[in-house]
Amino acid sequence: MILSALWKIRLHIIAIFTIFVLAGSSNAYAVAVTITDIRVGQTEKTTRLVLDVDQPIDASLFYLGNPNRVVLDLPQVGWRLPHRPLPKNIGVLSSIRYGLFRPGNSRLVIDLVAPSKISKAWFIPYDGERPFRLVLDMTRVSQNQFFSYLSTPSIKVARRSGENDKKQMVFKDSNIIDNVNSDIFENNGSTVHKKQENKNSSYNSQNIISVRQTKLKLPPRKPERNTLVIKRKIVIDPGHGGVDPGAIGRAGTYEKYITLGFGRELVRALRKSGRYEAVLTRDRDKYIPLRKRVAIAREARADLFISLHADSIKNKNIRGVSVYTLSETASDKEAAELAAKENKADLIFGKDFNNENPEVTNILIDLAQRETMNRSARFANLLILELRKSTEILRRTHRFAGFRVLKAPDVPSILLELGFLSNRRDEVNLRSKKYRRKISAAIITSIDNYFERIEAASR
Questions:
Q1: In the 8-state DSSP scheme, what is residue 392?
Q2: What is the C-alpha separation between 15 and 425, in angstroms, rounded?
Q3: Which of 196, 277, 365, 394 can pair with 322 through a Cys bridge, CB separation 3.0 to 4.6 Å?
């Protein structure tokens, strides 16, 4: 009885500890700030970008070359922008891209038509009517000057408040920005109030446009699809290979060649879309152990893992596509194996479990893998919705099994059975380039839908 009571107390302590750990992890990446609008205007020498935010926010910026870009780093934010296209081809700005760079870090990238610098950057506080605004002024520089900025560290955008730092912005027809008393933004990260300008600053009154005399008209935008800053990374795993031929079709087709052909086509289409980075676990007829395939996905920090297969069974009449995700029964054993490893640092989302109680570690890894399994299932369901529009699918299309290749604890993973080589019609389809393109298009649409839902959930 005493031992039983002690175990109950211990389990309660573990449960409470787990809740605190998960709560802390969740809060660290909670979306507390929302970007509500992005506007751009220009004068003869200055291009101005304005971000409307619902509360003050930390921000820093740096430069990238080849092609020339300015990158604005933010904490993880929600993007609740008006249903209109982003500004493009205004002044020195070519286009804007934005998105979640990593958990806890959102990023906005400004593509430049010419080498330029951020000559000024400041915040305008909420005035009772208009929201907080982050303002960036951009001016052209020589390419050599721009190259010199590439080696400088990230520059923090100063955030001030108080009666001695008043800033006012007036909008006329929501298209004009003027009357701004701002802090001058120095290239070394410091700020100097405009009325107390540093004489040693490279930005003096002669080369900074008077904002009080500036009126920036914002043209209407034409509809276009918003694009993300960061390309999601998709790992495509052509099943079998080398000494492992996989299933063999009625006409002698080897599964290892079918999956490799599909994998190459899918990676080609993903890269061509411009929205994704795509990685193959094998790009030739080579045997790769299952554990190595999982390791490739994890080392690449993949956002999604898709393993391609083509089955063969005794019943020659069965045909169609099916999608597998990891079964519930398999996850507990895998969590135990992961917990038993000596070095657990950065195993799950960069969390270091080295100093944790082994029982707590098992729980945390199990919970992390359960969340990954949930995401895998969500993608599987979206994939099935698209596949049924393009090809024959099995009844109970979404199935569950303990495939070892699906056991990455931090990468949503599915196994796609492309069809049955034991069925004559499926085998013909699987050898067809046209069919490969059609299925690849359906897969990419489902990937788009999956990440759009993730982005929407963070808003």
A1: -
A2: 53
A3: 394
The verdict on pTM exceeding 0.90 is no
DSSP state of 73: E
Please give the Cα distance from 439 to 362 (Å, whole number): 39
222 domain-assigned: no
Q: Where are the beta strands (DSSP E) in 43-148?
A: 47-53, 60-64, 69-75, 77-79, 93-102, 105-112, 116-124, 132-140
Give the span between the Cα atoms of 181 and 210, in whole angstroms.
9
* Straight-line distance from the first to the last Cα atom of the chain, in angstroms, rounded to the nearest whole number: 50
CATH of the domain at 236: 3.40.630.40
**The CA-based dihedral angle spanning residues 423, 424, 427, 428, taken in that order and rounded to the nearest 10 degrees:** -150
Q: How many Å apart are CA 442 and CA 314, to the nearest integer?
A: 28
pLDDT digits (tens, 9 = 90+) for 391-418: 999 888 888 777 778 888 889 999 999 9
Q: What is the DSSP letter of 254?
A: B
Q: How far apart are CA 373 and CA 215, in angstroms?
A: 53
Burial class (CB in 10 A: 0-12, 13-18, 19+), 56: middle
Asked if 308 contacts 403 with a C-beta cutoff of 8 angstroms, the reply is no
Q: What span, in angstroms and rounded, lies between the C-alpha atoms of 99 and 108?
A: 7
If one counts every other C-beta atom within 10 angstroms of the C-beta of residue 163, the result is 5
Same domain, 168 and 121: yes
User: Do the domain assignments include residue 105?
Assistant: yes
Total number of domains constituting the chain: 2
Burial 425-442 (b: 16+ CB within 10 A, else e): ebbebbbeeebbeebbbb
The tens digit of pLDDT for each residue in 260-314 reads 999 999 999 999 998 899 999 999 999 999 889 999 999 998 999 999 999 888 8
Query: What is the extent of the structural domain holding 36?
Result: 31-213
218 domain residue, yes or no: no
Distance separating alpha carbons of residues 87 and 89, to the nearest angstrom: 7
Instruction: Examine residue 262 and state whether it is found in any structural domain, yes or no.
Output: yes
Instruction: Work out whether strand 60-64 and strand 155-156 pair parallel, antiparallel, or are unpaired.
Output: antiparallel
Comparing CA positions, the residue from 26, 31, 23 lying closest to residue 76 is 31
What is the Cα–Cα distance from 393 to 387, expressed in whole angstroms?
7
**Structure-token match 């046209």, residue found:** 434
